[in-house]
Amino acid sequence: MEHRIKERRTSFGYTQEQLSEKLGVSRQTIISIENVRYKPTLELAYKIVTLFQLRIEDVFIFEKESE
């Protein structure tokens, strides 16, 4: 899964620490998400898009799994 979280975060002028505080997660979680080492839960993904006032499709790019 690709995403545009870092791009959105920087366009809002948030540091990783500020974003983590707004979302109620650790800075390490934000780092892991931005480095695609951790996929956010649906609840966290919803918080992210709500904060940025966007649709989930505007932030996350879901790829179909190979069969």
UniProtKB/TrEMBL annotation:
Keywords: DNA-binding. One of its GO terms (molecular function) is DNA binding. The keyword DNA-binding applies. Gene3D superfamilies: lambda repressor-like DNA-binding domains. Residues 5-59 form the HTH cro/C1-type domain. The keyword DNA-binding applies. InterPro entries: Cro/C1-type_HTH, Lambda_DNA-bd_dom_sf. It comes from the Bacteria. SMART domains: HTH_XRE. PANTHER family: DNA-BIDING PHAGE PROTEIN, TRACRIPTIONAL REGULATORY PROTEIN-RELATED-RELATED. This is Transcriptional regulator.
